[in-house]
Every structure is written in C-alpha cells, then in structure tokens.
Amino acid sequence: MRVLVSAASKHGSTAQIADRIAEAVRNALPVGAVVEVCPAAETADVASYDAVVLGSAVYMGHWLQEARLAAVRIAARPPRSVWLFSSGPIGDPPKPDEDPVDVRGIVAAMNARGHRVFAGRLDRCRLGFAEKAMVRALRVPDGDFRDWDAIDDWATQIAAELCSLAPAAAHHPMATRGPWRDAARIDAAADLRPAARSAP
Predict the structure, then answer these.
(1) pTM exceeds 0.70 for this model
(2) How far apart are CA 83 and CA 194, in angstroms?
C-alpha cells in the first residue's frame, strides 16, 4: 500500500501537520506500507498511490493556489481514496469555524472521503509587513492552536479505513468517471487566481 500526504504551507505550520499525519498513518498501517510526504507544488502524477491526503493553509477563506492546482492535477488521474484537510483557524475557540469557500467543490470533484479543518499557528515573527498589519487590524492572537491529538486521531482513522478497503480494492471506484471533467469542475469551483492572503 502506498499513501501520499501533500500540503501547501506558507509559514510551515501546515507542512508540520502534514508530517504529523504521515507519521500517524505510517504507524497505524501494516508493516511494508509506504507513506510519503511531498509539497503540494511538487505533487503531480499520483496514479501509483492507493490514497492521497491533500491539505492547505487557509487565507481569507481560500486554499492556497498551490493546493488548488494540485487538486486539479490529482483529479486528472485520481487514486482510489482521497482525504482533504485545511489549517488556519486560530484562537480559543478557533475562528473562523466554517469550511474554506472553495473546499466544497474540491471535495465533490475529487470524490473525497472526508475533509477536516484543523486549528493553525500564528507567529508574528514569520509574517510579512502586510500580514502583520492585517493581524493587528483583526486583533488576531498569537499562539500555536494546533490540536495534535485530533490530528493523530484523524490520521489513525484514515489508516483504519484504508485497511478495511484493501481486501475489496479489486477495481478503481473512480475508473468510470471522466478525470478531465473532474478537473474542470475544480477549476470552476475553486478560482485558480491567487487569493488574497491573511495570516497565519
């Protein structure tokens, strides 16, 4: 079994979540399973993988462009199973608490098995001038709000579902779908122009 975990990260927080997901999935899968991590910008042909977990930092309610473009490429030759995650809400409780505006279309087009939103981290030292001005205006609190237990639990659930799917995986469930049609649906659902960004 081969699994790819890929994410688009601006300041490193979401990349660390991807690393943690990969570690937890790897530890929960049988010996011999391969779990790899790759930045979303470098994710291309995933046909050789049994599953892909794709995530992105969220800025102004949108996934980063690198993740949205990766979603288009993955939809062109989709693996058997896809999960999605977003990282961005901060505070206690984390806000905003709604899904990114472009995720619903990506979930539908990729036939994703699930999507989770995880709290993020804000470190003003890592921000550019415009980002610092924005967080000051919004009075956004500094801190690391990532819930590692929740991340581990979700990754373990993915591994358990992959194990349950493995015996019955004789055929690709998306083989009868039109991949280029799915990619077009992502284009329509998630505007691929660079979205305005905020911190973290």
Answers:
(1) yes
(2) 23
Contact in structure between 82 and 113 (CB atoms under 8 Å): yes
Cβ pair 110, 84 in contact under 8 A: yes
What is the token pair recorded at 130?
């415009």
How does pLDDT run across 125-175, given as a tens digit for each residue? Answer: 665 556 655 555 556 666 677 899 999 999 999 999 999 987 655 444 443
Residue 69's alpha-carbon distances to 40, 113, 144, 176, 183, in angstroms, are 8, 19, 28, 23, 9
Alpha carbons 85 and 16: distance in angstroms, whole number: 13
Chain position carrying tokens 């990349």: 15
Among candidate residues 83, 82, 80, the one with its CA nearest the CA of residue 169: 80
The region of weakest confidence among 31-40, 107-116, 163-172 is: 163-172
Which residues does 71 contact at the CB level (< 8 Å), separation at least 6? 54, 63, 106, 109, 110, 186, 190
Q: State the residue for tokens 């998306």.
A: 174
| H or E element that contains 157 | helix 148-165
Question: Which residues lie closer than 8 Å to 33 by C-beta, 6 or more apart?
Answer: 1, 2, 3, 26
To which residue do tokens 């911190």 refer? 199
User: Measured between alpha carbons, how far is 189 from 200 in angstroms, rounded to an integer?
Assistant: 24
Q: What is the pLDDT of residue 138?
A: 56
